Input
Amino acid sequence: MSFVVRIFFCLAIVGLSGCHRARPSLTLSVPDTAFRIVEKDGASLLLPPPAATSFHTQELSISLPKQKLSPSRTAACQVSNDLFQLQILDDRALLRMSPVDSWWKQADASLDEVLPSLETLEHRRCLSTHSALQLQQIIRESLPMRPGQSLYGAYGYRMGGGGLDLRSGMRVSLQRAHFRIPAALRKSPADGFIGISTVQYERGEDGDFRRLGVEYSSDLLRQSLRRGWQDLYFAREAGARPVYRLFLLTHYVRAGIQRSAIVIGASSVAQLSDVEKQLKQDPGAPCSSLARAKVACVLFEGEVTASVELLARIDGTPTYVPWGTTVRTVLQQRKKELPTMQLRRLWAKQLLSVEVDGDRNSLLDLALVAGDELSWE
Output
């Protein structure tokens, strides 16, 4: 696989989803091609536009603003593991993949080891200030993946993993059950039940969380909560950070700990990786224990669930769908047919078609991401 992604620094200062305001933006040129699904080693493989332009050698070249690195610095400006080697040169970042067959089957886990090292390269002045975070996302979105792994390229979620990045086009719903009687004193699960509140937030293009609305299952609940409750303050507690990740604690939590999720806001992917390690070691740790990591922390405890939805356009209508929704799910729910379906996906803010070489059934397992458009002839 040999392909080039060109990156340019914008002169304007813009706020980006997932990137702190007032930082220079990296933007992508759009290859004159579509997303493609091809057959490889007996399985389907989704090729983003850079990969779809050529799929023969295992190398990704990303153009960077030109700089002059001395030989000693060039030697220090590279990281590698068993599957990937990333090298920063004078005018580009070069990512080489192992020549082993089917390297893409383990690419997500292996790439997770390499991407945090980009911040180390930035500290070594191999990369310009604040560019590591954006370069990490560009690399992740550019690599071939199985159709069902779309959520990794877009949000860093791996099957069986603990969480996903919160980016623009996503909605977080907090549903909480409210009771008059403390849990320890209830004689039955419904003892003292008042109702369920739902508070929804979205992450905008500027990176901020905004409250979309509040719903109450009964007037009695509305009256009892007139002074407010913790879910109303999520946006304030989350603060303003370049990157946020929702960790689903069911992957970590021990029996007896009543918490469903935690949102971490950090300045880097490396910070998030460190926090994830801490959560695995101690799922019951309070947010205060993460203060030394200098991250924003919002913990959801008690009878509350935190769920994520993605904004797609289905049959011409903007629609929020649960994260993890596949093409198969939409077809079943809408009683639509695959042969007449058209799917387009965002690349560098431009909608491009998703085309299939061979059996169109390979589309069925494609996980939707924010911005996807599905229509039928």
In short: Confidence is low (pLDDT under 50) at residues 1-25.
